[in-house]
Amino acid sequence: MKYISTRGHVAPQGFIDTVLMGLADDGGLMIPEKIPHVSAATLKEWSTLSYKELFLQVFSLYTNEEIPKEDLKEMVDKSYASFRSPEVTPVKQLNDSLYILELFHGPTFAFKDVALQFMGEFYSYVSKKQNKIIHILGATSGDTGAAAIQGVRGKEGIKICILHPHEKVSKVQELQMTTVDDKNVLNLSVKGNFDDCQKLIKEQFADLDFKSKHNLRAINSINFVRILAQSVYYFYAYFQIEQGDQPKKVNVSVPSGNFGNIFSGFLAKMMGLPIHKLIIATNENNILERFVKSGEYKPGEFRSTHSPSMDIQVASNFERYLYYFLGQDAEKVSAYMNSLQNDGEIVISAEDLVRVQNDFEAHGASNEQGLQLISTYKAEYDYLLDPHTACGVAAYEECNGEDEICISFATAHPAKFNEAIEQCDIEQKFPAEIEQLFAKLQHQLVIDHNKEEIVKELVAFYEQ
């Protein structure tokens, strides 16, 4: 299998080169030339596998045997050794129609750990094999940064710089990043929002001379390996649902900001996983909901919410969906992305909107609705939702139909967002790993949203 760009101007690449490229050199996103199909018989065989075994089966369809099986298995074993659940992503049933997929059992208590622990091992493996220093550059709305830093801290041959929006992440998210004192880690706290940070990251990757000179590698979900790693738990979750003689349709509700997680589900569905509805759950920064309901993809007014990891207006992975929506026509993708850049919006026809609504449903939860659901589910089920998970549950309540089952993703542990939990008059006990963060010193550089100053800090860090 080879990998190509959504914009059509990158020669086909192998798996390792695709991961190392991150953002495609033509500004697009890398995707497989062909999506492998998994038969019903194979799905049945996979249904009894452990999470790690399933991961190996999914990845084997995409790696072109560039990584020996024993090496891949070692990376997978190391990646999930620190997870607090032997199932990696356990499923909990709350009622007859709602299951919760818990994605927060990794070292930083968020779903990003599932992919980024593997990416850390992968980059370390490649650095040793190629005898090259890897410089990772990423932006975070909160969880990606902590998970990425945890995945590579202290590893030889790797340096990582993460940009996060100053005072626009939760305190625990900030502490998870900035209490790390390893010499290969730099935290830049940028006076702006996540979209500002993400735009700068994309610009540096689009500067091919800068990218090559500093050997830049991506950790954000612009990197296809993030998408692929996340697709595994869609299969795993689906297989955990016990179906009787009359199986019900299975929906998935996914808290969504950058469109990476929900696109992983779209990939799994294209591979043959029989998901009925892919439900996009957003907060008040609801560009994705507006697109699904109106056909207009246009950034709106930025709002800070109780679910800061979803406080995103421009969703990077939306371009990957556009590629398939537009019949894998790279020229049309480029035209749409140019429209977004030049006109600030993408607008599709009423006929095309019907097709989008066949792929997705969507619901945006308000801050008030999220807090209400946190209180309600704690009272009725003794289950504490974090504010992002509450958005997913809100979308389940809005979009799940009769005689349908929904798997709603719990993307973070509630301890990461105690600011919201306290507003519900709920006192939670912090895990020891989070509690101890508050006694540690922080290491970060607060910096203006100034490209020249930020690039200066990057260069100094990478060249020291």
Short description:
The chain has 20 helices and 15 strands.
What does this structure look like?
This protein is α/β, with parallel strands linked by helices and 464 residues long. It has 20 helices and 15 strands. A 6-stranded mixed sheet has the order 3-4-14-9-10-13. A 5-stranded parallel sheet has the order 8-5-6-7-15, sandwiched between helices. A two-stranded antiparallel sheet has the order 1-2. Strand 6, helix 7 and strand 7 (185-191) form a beta-alpha-beta unit. Helix 4 crosses helix 5 (112-130), helix 5 (112-130) runs parallel beside helix 6 and helix 5 packs across helix 10. It is globular. The model has no long low-confidence stretch (mean pLDDT 95). The modification N6-(pyridoxal phosphate)lysine is found at residue 112. GO terms for molecular function: pyridoxal phosphate binding; threonine synthase activity. Catalyzes the gamma-elimination of phosphate from L-phosphohomoserine and the beta-addition of water to produce L-threonine.
Task: Present the secondary structure layout.
Blueprint: E1 3-5, H1 15-21, E2 30-32, H2 40-46, H3 51-60, H4 69-79, E3 91-93, E4 98-102, H5 112-130, E5 134-139, H6 143-152, E6 158-165, H7 171-178, E7 185-191, H8 194-206, H9 208-213, E8 216-218, H10 224-240, E9 249-255, H11 260-271, E10 278-282, H12 287-294, E11 296-297, H13 318-325, H14 330-343, E12 346-347, H15 350-359, E13 360-364, H16 367-381, H17 387-399, E14 404-410, H18 418-423, H19 432-435, E15 445-448, H20 451-463
Parallel strand pairs: 4-14, 5-6, 5-8, 6-7, 7-15, 9-10, 9-14, 10-13
Antiparallel strand pairs: 1-2, 3-4, 11-12
Helix pairs in contact: 3-4, 3-10, 4-5, 5-6, 5-10, 6-7, 10-11, 16-17
